[in-house]
Specification:
Low-confidence stretches: 1-67, 164-168
Distance between the termini: 84 Å
CATH architecture of the largest domain: 2-Layer Sandwich
Helix content: 40-55%
Strand order of the largest sheet: 8-17-21-19-18-22
Mean pLDDT: 76
Strand content: 25-35%
Radius of gyration: 41 Å
CATH topology of the largest domain: Beta-Lactamase
Oligomer: single chain
CATH superfamily of the largest domain: GAF domain
Number of strands: 22
Length: about 525
């Protein structure tokens, strides 16, 4: 007979013994919601539901349990099932169910720590550790637990004794030895159970020193944990989606065939059939690829206003400039001489007007005043030409092209392009192959990765398609405009990348063979084999 109480378990179970306090490892260690923090909100209802001993229950419930005549083993299973079902009803996710299970097991079996995880192939997912909201993957202990679960899934569970000087046997289970040594040779029990999805659910129990697990306790833990492990694995498999469940089932079939030592040819037949059925029947998101170029929404070309020579240059391609910022100047020495000449004409005209006014020569005074207006017009024209020799940015943006710094003093003709300025670079140009343009629709979303930031995925929306094809790298492509709609940084004009445009859903077999089937149809049409 096994007595169930909060800390230890023993074969003798006197029902009159006073309840002992919960072990320190199962009590919340620290507050907070980060990794490794205790989770009092989840632990309190679990402790309330998982109290196993008749002495620890309220009087009305204690009388009901004793009157029912339940054995300690049945009370263990009932308490664990009740805690798991409460967590399932309250939250419904595999993490909450796993946390309820490990906290209740820690209370029932007097463990300092209980961990539960799922092993699928080579992937180990640690779902819950007793007394913690989330396992902290940065700790060495968490990594040791994951290694132990992987070994238990491959080779089966293991029970290691504890005590001073106790050491794990020197067998192939190195992860068990590392965890056993890191905890100071405390008693350790690992249990593994195959789940319906093909993986394995593994639970690791650790007790304080001096309280090793017995055969009866191991059998009880294996029996009591079976429903909780199955429920956790089922909930986790449902969260993977259709593709994840199909992959898990396929892996389970491969493992089952391998365990039965079926010949390789025989084993490949059902696996191949399942893979072909999945590729032919299950529709998956289909995307069309294309090269992306970032274009500026506002662009302006700055040209030389007249023939001359480049005197100074203050910007080049790639520079960010402000509105009305000076970019370059043309040689203005001829304009300066012309301005001086016309200003001297102004002075001379004013002197002649003074003499005509003194001599009361009204005819000469009228002529000189008309001549003064002409001189002012000529002077204004020369000054305007000199001002146009200063090339300034029309708006704030980026210099897309032009580098006059390499050609200072070089002659330029009127109309020669000196700079190209762009701003508002949220517009994209997606080059879509003519074979894929029929699958692309206006308003479709595209996921974009720029060559300058390949780890960042941007989201864009396609604008109305321009029905004009151009040649690019020996292919006919359509330039499809798109606009970035996320809140990321504005890329620089001219940057390039790759876009994946949403084009509905279709099975893998249809997606992989689409180009081949279309080319074969065109060839058959050309040869007159089809109408």
């Amino acid at each position: 007979m096994i007595r169930v109480s909060s800390p230890p378990m023993s074969v003798d179970a006197p029902s009159s013994r006073a309840p002992e306090p919960r072990p320190a490892a199962a009590t919340p260690a620290k507050a907070g919601g980060g990794p490794g923090a205790a989770c009092p909100s989840a632990a309190e209802p679990i402790r309330a539901a998982g109290a196993p001993s008749g002495d620890e229950l309220p009087r009305d419930r204690r009388d009901g349990v004793r009157s029912a005549g339940l054995s300690p083993e049945a009370r263990v299973r009932a308490s664990l099932d009740r805690a798991v079902l409460d967590a399932l009803a309250s939250h419904g996710d595999p993490g909450s169910v796993a946390l309820a299970a490990v906290d209740t097991v820690a209370t029932l079996f007097g463990c300092r720590r209980v961990s539960l995880g799922l092993v699928d192939g080579g992937d180990v997912k640690l779902l819950a550790v007793s007394g913690e909201c989330r396992p902290d993957g940065r700790r060495a202990t968490t990594r040791h637990l994951a290694d132990v679960m992987g070994e238990a899934a491959r080779y089966g569970g293991r029970r290691l004794p504890g005590g001073d000087g106790a050491a794990a046997p020197a067998d192939e289970r190195a992860a068990h030895r590392r965890l056993h040594a890191s905890t100071g040779a405390l008693p350790l029990l690992s249990l593994a159970r195959a789940s319906a999805g093909g993986g394995r659910a593994v639970v690791v129990l650790e007790r304080p020193a001096g309280r090793p697990f017995t055969d009866a306790e191991e059998a009880l833990a294996r029996t009591a944990l079976r429903p909780a492990l199955a429920l956790t694995a089922t909930l986790h498999a449902r969260g993977h989606g259709l593709a994840g469940r199909a992959r898990t089932s396929l892996r389970a079939a491969v493992d089952a065939l391998a365990q039965r030592r079926v010949p390789a040819r025989t084993a490949l037949v059902p696996v191949t059939l399942v893979a072909l059925a999945f590729a032919s029947l299950v529709p998956l998101p289909y995307r069309v690829g294309g090269r992306v170029t970032v274009e500026a929404s506002d662009r302006q070309v700055l040209v030389a206003p007249e023939a001359g020579h480049i005197r100074t240059a203050h910007a080049r391609a790639g520079d960010t400039v402000a509105a009305d910022e000076l970019l370059a100047t043309l040689d203005d020495r001829e304009h300066a001489l012309a301005i001086d000449r016309w200003r001297s004409e102004v002075v001379k005209n004013r002197a002649e007007q003074s003499r005509a006014l003194a001599g009361h020569d009204r005819v000469e005074l009228a002529r000189l005043r008309a001549d003064a207006a002409r001189i002012e017009a000529e002077l204004g024209l020369v000054e305007a030409r000199r001002a146009r020799g200063e090339i300034r940015a029309p708006f704030a943006g980026v210099v897309l092209s032009g580098d006059p710094t390499r050609s200072l003093g070089a002659p330029v003709e009127a109309g020669d392009v000196l700079f190209e300025i762009g701003a508002g670079a949220r517009e994209l140009s997606v080059a879509v192959d003519e074979r894929d343009i029929a699958l692309v629709a206006t308003g479709a979303r595209a996921r974009v990765r720029m060559a300058a930031a390949p780890r960042e995925v941007r989201v864009a929306r396609l604008e109305p398609i321009v029905p004009v094809a151009v040649d690019a790298d020996g292919r006919h492509v359509f330039r499809v405009p798109a606009v970035l709609i996320d809140d990321g940084d504005v890329p620089s004009p001219g940057m390039q990348g790759v876009a994946r445009i949403e084009a509905g859903r279709r099975p893998l077999a249809s997606a992989w063979t689409r180009t081949l089937r279309e080319r074969a149809l065109l060839l058959a049409w050309r040869l007159g084999l089809v109408r």
